[in-house]
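About this split. The held-out portion is used to measure sequence recovery: a designer receives only the structure tokens and must propose an amino acid at every position. Recovery is the fraction of positions where the proposal matches the reference. Here is one held-out target exactly as it appears in the evaluation file.
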């Protein structure tokens, strides 16, 4: 496993890369005022 990852710019949590280098956000939802759901907040 690598020590690489990044901090989520929205919630500030550290998201580590897996053994293949893939970074996936954890399943903890962002706070309501930081949620960017496409249905409610189209871009």
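Reference sequence for scoring:
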């Amino acid at each position: 496993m690598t020590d690489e990852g990044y901090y989520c710019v929205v919630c500030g949590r550290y998201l580590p890369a897996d053994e293949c280098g893939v970074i996936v956000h954890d399943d903890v939802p962002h706070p309501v005022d930081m949620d960017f759901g496409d249905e409610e907040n189209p871009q």
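Annotator remark: Residues 1 and 18 are 6 Å apart (CA to CA).
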